[in-house]
Amino acid sequence: MPLAIEDYAVIGDTHTAALVGRDGSIDWLCFPRYDSPSVFGALLGDENHGRWLIAPYATIHGHHGVTATRRYIKNTFTLVTRWVTPTGEVQVTDLMPVGNRRADIVRRVKGISGSVVMHVDLRFRFDYANAIPWIRQTPDMGHHELLAVAGPDAIVIRGPKLHAEDHNHAAQFTVNAGETVDQTLTWYPSHREPPTAMRVTRRIKETNAWWQKWTSGGSTSTEFPDAVRRSLLVLRALTHEDTGGIVAAATTSLPESFGGSRNWDYRYVWLRDASLTLHVLLDHGFVGEADTWRNWLLRAIAGDPADVQIMYGLAGERRLPEWEVPSLPGYQGAEPVRVGNGAFTQYQGDVFGEVMVALQAARRLGNDEPDFSWPVQRALMSYVEENWQRPDHGIWEIRGPERNFTHARVMLWAALDCAISAVNDFGLSGPVQRWQKLREQIRDEIESNGFDKKRNTYTQFYGSAGVDASLLQLAQVGYIAADDPRMLGTVAAIEAELLEGGLLLRYRSETGVDGLPAGEHPFLACSFWLVEQYAMSNRLDDARALMTRLVSFSNDVGLLSEEYDVGNMRQAGNTPQALTHLTLVRAADAIARATKRDTP
Fold first, then answer.
1. Using alpha carbons only, what angle is made at residue 1 by residues 574 and 569, rounded to the nearest 5 degrees?
2. DSSP β-bridge partners for residue 159
3. Which of 363, 391, 501, 515 is the most exposed, fewest CB within 10 Å of its CB?
């Protein structure tokens, strides 16, 4: 059975990522991209669905007196786990080397004191555990190699000699103080020859230097700096090196409700999440990554604006058909496991606003803008002019009927506001008077149909009696001041209706608005939005208190998933979640600004 979600750390090479459990087992790995079929899939089943365990032999047999602590080497994704056993102490270093155009994993075992017997359990299950590969040992030429091949995929393992045991391979070896034993894994297309063995020490040093150099190229925050720094690193780890696409998470089908069916594939690029990420990267000085993402965005949405999607594949792929994977039983039985995401066909009006806000932020910071950038944005605005009254599926990808969601209308207002600013403030060409008129028309409609005067709150959708946490973004995009009585009334309604255990739900799922069975946990990004709102509206003590609590939900290496189960004090949903980490950064920045504003 897989571990609790918070018991996993992530390692990555900016092409894909692996989840390493506190028990020393890699339970999730897709090669060569984040969205490739899994090689190790125990996260969504058990060890027979693929894993790679390296741990002291004593832990396998339940011996007492074995403890483990872990950390990342500072400002990297190199994971160091230190095991203390009755016979000695040993350190395991896990990483995915970056910058060498290969798909590798390094697992280095180093003896610290005494003598420790280590155990290896390796179970390859390619193609989401649909394929057990053909495995063979190569002739011993000074080191041991194991080749695994199935269809288009091949892997070579180098290190201690492994012995076949039914459908897995195992090894035991002893590490004494001062000794080092390396095991490496390399994926390659099966029609090619295996890549050569790597120089492990060199690749570890180069990889650590790469991450640390990247981190040094930007700024952190004066508030919650460690959490902000790790969150920025997460955003970089989820950004594909070649294409610039930013995946929403490294996993698929980790449940929003344990044992339930709210299990989605997040290994794709949402325009919304990635646009917000661009804004955060710009705020912290990572201009190169922001430019790369902007260029990805402009390539992806180029063409007929009617074809703009809410999400794409890593390289801008448009077709992401959703299908269920019968070979994986699901995380602790939560089924179905899904690959692809049917929401790619949805219309969500708010993405036009997020895209325009992000591109405007880049423009304000003076980033060089490609020649075709403004023409693409003009085309988007033409589509907005023609379709702004169209009902949509909303920010949460409602799988029920399309509605006139208030948040979506506000984001369309924000899209027009950015376009108007581009003309007035930056001298770009456009029908500014027509856009100004439409901007006011949308505002009038929102105030007439999306605001409940009796309750003094904006509503989830026109005619709705309920609220939605996404309404917290109204002040963030400048639609309304954070301390406006209407916004404060909305915040009060959100606190009254959506707080559960002190954290915010996205909306009340029991209303049936999303067309799915009721039940999910508080959505962490929403609570970070509430922190930002508190900071913007002079509730700094409340902002700090909630922020401190939210950051405490990070696991031991600083990672957060999508949701949090307050009752059972555990993370839920896909992990690590880009939206959670970027809203953490925004919330910390908001507290920093409010603190500076309040300091005499």
1. 55
2. 144
3. 515
Q: Scanning the structure block, which residue is given the tokens 């994986």?
A: 328
Class of domain 217-598 (CATH, top level): mainly alpha
For the entire predicted model, the pTM comes to 0.96
Q: Which residues contact 368 (CB under 8 A, 6 or more apart)?
A: 291
Nearest one of 95, 115, 123, 75 to 10, comparing CA atoms = 95
CA distance 571 to 210: 30
Q: Cα separation of 394 and 531, whole Å?
A: 22
d(CA 531, CA 445): 28
In the predicted structure, residue 279 carries a pLDDT above the cut 90: no
The model's pLDDT over 384-397, given as tens digits with 9 standing for 90+, comes to 999 999 999 999 98
* CA–CA separation, 236 and 252 (whole Å): 19
pLDDT digits (tens, 9 = 90+) for 239-258: 999 999 999 999 999 999 88
pLDDT above 70: residue 600: no
pLDDT for residue 143: 67
Q: State how far the Cα of 104 lies from the Cα of 267, in Å rounded to an integer.
A: 20
**CA atoms of 519 and 511, how far apart (whole Å):** 10
Contact yes or no for 278/293 (Cβ under 8 A):
yes
DSSP state of 296: H
Q: Which residues make Cβ contacts (< 8 Å) with residue 454, sequence separation at least 6? A: none
- Strands (E) in 197-310, as ranges, are 269-270
- CATH tag for 5-212 (out of 3.40.50.450, 3.40.50.1000, 2.40.160.40, 2.70.98.10): 2.70.98.10
Determine what percent of the chain is predicted with pLDDT higher than 90: 82
Element (H, E) at 108: strand 103-123
**Mean pLDDT (the chain, rounded):** 94
Which residue shows structure tokens 């799915």? 516
Q: Is the dihedral of CA 212, 214, 215, 217 positive or negative?
A: positive
- 433 exposed, middle or buried (CB, 10 Å; 0-12, 13-18, 19+)? exposed
* Contact status, residue 436 vs residue 505, Cβ threshold 8 Å: no
- What residues does each domain of the chain span? 5-212, 217-598
* Residue 132 structure tokens: 């057990």
